[in-house]
Write a structure and sequence with these properties.
The chain contains 4 helices and 8 strands. With 172 residues, the protein is α+β, with helices and mostly antiparallel strands. Strands 1, 2, 3, 4, 5, 6, 7 and 8 form an 8-stranded mixed sheet that branches. A hairpin with a 2-residue loop joins strand 4 and strand 5 (75-90).
Length: 172
């Protein structure tokens, strides 16, 4: 039975977008060498009073509803595993072509990238058989959860057919 502790710190609203099939990519300034990781919800971005401005109008209510993860003290609920299928490079000038594949505004993405090319992480998201309430080590991007989490019995959040079709569109 495969178990994992490696996790990626990510906004809870984005984790829920990935977990509900609304999004299958992350846009980053750098790539990753990890084949996969748990998605660990963060909340610091919610301290910014205008954090909802980074989300498209159609997704602001979704982001607001999913801003905070379920938590118990320092423990947060981990529900998803992400498999890195591919990391694509997109020129800064072509970021708009990805607009329908994420819930951020183009302005937010461009501000984040600061005129640098994007590394687009194409992710296959799986829901864990059972969510786990756990803590993580301190770290900015990647960390380790304190409890090993089983990947046995996890299920993809979108079908193989849907993922393959989406993947082809994103790669164009």
């Amino acid at each position: 039975m495969e178990k994992i502790t490696k996790c990626l710190n990510e906004w809870n609203a984005i984790i829920e977008a990935l977990g509900s099939g609304k999004q299958s990519i992350l846009i980053r300034k750098s790539g990753t060498t990890l084949p996969g990781f748990l998605l660990y919800p963060t909340i610091t971005y919610t301290n910014n009073e205008n954090f909802l401005d980074g989300f498209k109008p159609d997704f602001k209510k979704f982001a607001e509803t999913n801003a905070l993860p379920e938590q118990d003290g320092n423990k947060r609920n981990v529900k998803y595993y992400a498999e890195v299928v591919e990391v694509l490079e997109k020129p800064y000038s072509r970021i708009g072509s990805l607009n329908k594949y994420h819930i951020w505004t183009n302005e937010h993405v461009k501000s984040y990238l600061a005129n640098k090319n994007a590394k687009v992480w194409l992710l296959r998201i799986y829901e864990l058989k059972k969510p786990v309430m756990t803590e993580k080590t301190r770290s900015i991007t990647y960390a380790n959860v304190l409890d090993e989490i089983s990947l046995e019995g996890m299920k993809p959040v979108i079908s193989d057919k849907e993922f393959n079709e989406l993947s082809e569109k994103i790669k164009k």
